[in-house]
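Ticket #424: bound-state structure for pyridoxal-5'-phosphate.
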Amino acid sequence: MPAECWLNSQALNKAGNDAIFSWYAKYKNAVLGGHNAINATVGSLLEDDGSLAINRAALKAVKMSEDVEFASYAPLKGLPSYLDLSISLALGHERSNLEDLGLHMTSIATPGGSGALYLTAANLIESGQKVLLRDRHWAPYAGFIAGCNLKMETWPLLPSSPSETPFFDQSGFEQSLQSLREKQSKILVWLNDPAHNPTGLSMTPSGRRACLESMVTSALSSENVGHTLVIDAAYTMYAEEPHGWAETIREAIHQGMPWPENLLVCFAVSLSKSHTVYGLRTGALVSIHPEMEAVKRLETVFGVTGRSTWSAAPRIAQHAMSVLHENEESGSHWSTERDRLKAMLDERRNTLLQSCQNYGIELNPTHDGFFAWLESKDSVEIATKCAKHHVYVVPLEHGIRIGLCSLRASDCDLFASVLSQFIG
Ligand SMILES: Cc1ncc(COP(=O)(O)O)c(C=O)c1O
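RESOLUTION: The complex was predicted; output attached.
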């Protein structure tokens, strides 16, 4: 194998092109070849004309920043105004209610939501242990996990029989929690909700409540096992309930749910999609716990980890988005822009669902965000046949990811008619 003499054993496992980029390249080649191709491959939100959708308020805030904000380092843990903003972005209108209920929050700026996920993998579980996630998930999770010398355990995305929580498999989750608890000193759960990538699934209030209660029960039953629930909120601003998790936590505490000392809830915040600043690599890890000392200690540990991994997170979007949201007028401009983009996604999703129904295609439940999903064992074969008709999707391990973020509503009928010819 080439380069073997330099690569360590972990590096030797790193192979291949990212499937998403390689299928996007096939679409681009078709366009260069003069074909009227349909693109459902990209993971960034595109306007109907194929250009990148940009939140004008966020872009204006960046452009209005002083030169020094582009050039300087940010403080190692992040700009204080941004850290405050990131907590509000995670918790929304529930922030003050949660503070009144005695919860404490700290935040640390990270290079995107990816940086936030990395901080949890690097610090909140022991080397060699398993991170718990759903069996359909964003593919790069596997790389973060392997890179930190961890393994993964999964539970089913959907319950196998009718359930009170149709979009959360509580019994599968509890079984996994129990088996991990018996073997591990720490439990780390990554949950990409709402607007899950790659399906667009969003859990309901009863599903969120059931999940939180399972974590609490598990933590209470094994007080020496540290439990962390990380809500990966990368697409939350395009969901019907962007702060549903904060609402669930507030309601549960109001109704007497105890908060075990060994339970930590974190939010992996990403500005990539919410503010359409993908390339400015800005996110945050927000930690929530009733004890101030606990979250302060985590803040220090995360800060030290960031220092020795990426130094400080980039400054410009931290600064610009703090200024944007401090001002009522620019803040509401951002909301109006976000609402327009959300409405575009909603229209595409509704049209696709209708078209799929017309052609007898059964998609997975899909509610919010950038994607929809067709479960399939033959995803590469189907995607290859669709490509012959200039319809481009991303074949992944258990199915086909349909990027609503790049699929025009007016193309949905043709899209579904082509897809329907190749599914079993
Ligand atoms: C599920 C999920 N989580 C986290 C991220 C992190 O994004 P970023 O690092 O750009 O903020 C993404 C980006 O595509 C994602 O799809």
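RESOLUTION NOTES: Residues 328-358 form the longest helix (31 residues).
TICKET STATUS: resolved
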